[in-house]
Amino acid sequence: MTHDAPHVQAVDAFIAATNANDPAKRAALLSDALTADVVFWGPLGRSVGRKAVEDFITEVVQGHPAAPCRMVRTTRVDAPEEWARFGWRYEAGDGHALLSGTDMVHISAAGGIDQIVVFAGSLD
């Protein structure tokens, strides 16, 4: 197991949760990926807790007018220590990119994501 393995597992579980249509499966994936008190710095501001992240996914990500859409990790997970970053793309069902960005996550000592900072869009 590499140093990055817990980071990759947590990030991939989080992305899988964003794509899960079944609320029970989404909740289970978020439970695997996030600490209960995760701090989520998203495009709509700061929120705290797994339920807040789940609500964001349900309302904003899955509730997008172009739905059904999906989140795709576009880069490797770069994890120098307890922080990690990864690129992502939010795409329509036909694969057309709607938005892309880079997220930074902090991994707790127990292995779950306890902070997510979303950077949506290009810095060009």
Overview of this structure, please?
With 124 residues, the chain is an alpha+beta fold. It has one domain (5-120): Nuclear Transport Factor 2, Chain: A (Roll), CATH 3.10.450. It is 31% helix and 38% strand. The protein has helices at 5-19, 23-33, 50-61; strands spanning 34-42, 45-48, 69-73, 83-92, 97-107, 113-120. A six-stranded mixed sheet has the order 2-1-6-5-4-3. Helix 1 packs antiparallel against helix 2 (23-33) and helix 2 packs across helix 3. The longest helix is centred in the first third of the chain and has 15 residues, at 5-19. The radius of gyration is 14 Å and the shape is globular. It starts with a helix and ends with a strand. The model has no long low-confidence stretch (mean pLDDT 90). It comes from Actinomadura rubrisoli. Pfam families: SnoaL_2 (PF12680). Residues 11-112 form the SnoaL-like domain.
- In what order do the strands lie side by side in the largest sheet? 2-1-6-5-4-3
Q: Give the helix tally.
A: 3
- SSE order in H/E notation? HHEEHEEEE
Oligomeric state of the chains in view: single chain
Give the tally of β-strands: 6
Q: List the uncertain runs.
A: none
- Highest-level CATH class: Alpha Beta
Biggest sheet layout? 6 strands, mixed
Overall structural class, as computed from helix and strand content, comes to alpha+beta
Helix fraction bin: 25-40%
Remind me, CATH topology?
Nuclear Transport Factor 2, Chain: A
Task: Determine Rg (CA atoms, Å).
Answer: 14 Å
* Percent of sequence in beta strands: 35-45%
Q: Note the gap between the termini.
A: 36 Å
Shape: globular
Organism: Actinomadura rubrisoli
InterPro entries: NTF2-like_dom_sf, SnoaL-like
Pfam family, one: SnoaL_2
Domain SnoaL-like: 11-112
